[in-house]
Specification:
2 helices, three-stranded antiparallel beta sheet, five-stranded mixed beta sheet, single chain, OB fold (Dihydrolipoamide Acetyltransferase, E2P), mainly beta, globular, 153 residues
């Protein structure tokens, strides 16, 4: 007799200023303290905050809220999440994302329920995680933002 098993995946809830994002924990390389980004050209889009240093690399720092048309918030609990990229571009292995606090681990299972709420172009879905509605970001679209803006070759 086959035993029915539910698939369990560990996710991370990333607190932003106006929403929570949810990602599988394998998408996150590391959480680092907030650091002001290095200088950059003023002709860059508002969601591009500049470059931050991580493990002797320069990583582009983005504001997800700003990329979705909201204002940039850098609160007193601001941190930076280093995300693994998915697009296979050798010049873009990681993206840094501004978050407003420490991500929280959560179990994701096949019982997740989708929530019908407005989404921005960078969000694929919204799900109910406990008491929290969390948005699933489109990581490939985030990478495409950088490429389309000419910030990555």
């Amino acid at each position: 007799m086959l035993e029915h098993r539910t698939s369990n995946l560990t996710g991370l809830l990333l607190p932003l200023a106006d929403r929570h994002l949810i990602l599988p924990n394998v998408a996150v390389a590391e959480l680092i303290d907030y650091q002001p980004p290095g200088t950059f050209d003023l002709d860059t889009p508002p969601w591009y905050l500049g470059l931050v240093t991580w493990r002797d690399r320069q990583i582009p720092l983005l504001s997800f809220e700003s990329a979705c048309g909201q204002k940039i918030v850098i609160g007193e609990r601001a941190r930076i999440v280093i995300l693994n990229t998915l697009g296979g571009r050798p010049e873009l292995k990681f993206i840094a994302l501004l978050v407003q606090g420490i991500p929280r681990s959560c179990k994701l299972d096949s019982q997740l329920s989708y929530v019908d709420v407005p989404l921005c172009a960078l969000e694929r879905a919204a799900v109910q995680v406990g008491e929290q509605v969390a948005k699933v970001p489109d990581l490939l679209a985030l990478e495409a933002l950088l490429v389309d803006a000419g910030l990555i070759d």
